[in-house]
Design goal:
Largest sheet: none
Number of strands: 0
Distance between the termini: 43 Å
Shape: elongated
Radius of gyration: 20 Å
Order of helices and strands: HHH
Length: 82
């Protein structure tokens, strides 16, 4: 069974972090660390955007107050019928 790609990415970032703190990194490792960090940030932002776009907000009276921008994104994805 193979490891989750996101966990593998985080594991390698952590490995390089600890090596940087203890003995330092070579130029190639520093370049790899920066690239992995950028990939992690890109993945995080994409996941966060997905979560926000799928969010439905209901006020305390039970009325939906989801933003129009989020509603448009949800319609585009086929998540809304209104």
């Amino acid at each position: 069974m193979s490891e989750d790609p996101e966990k593998k990415l985080i594991s390698r970032i952590n490995e390089l972090y600890h090596k940087k703190k203890s003995v330092g990194l070579t130029e190639a490792e520093e370049k790899e660390r920066k690239e992995l960090h950028q990939e992690f940030i890109k993945n995080f932002r994409a996941g966060f955007k997905q979560d926000v776009e799928n969010l439905v907000i209901i006020d305390k009276n039970g009325k939906e107050i989801t933003s129009e921008k989020a509603k448009r994104a949800q319609r585009k994805k086929g998540l809304r019928k209104d």
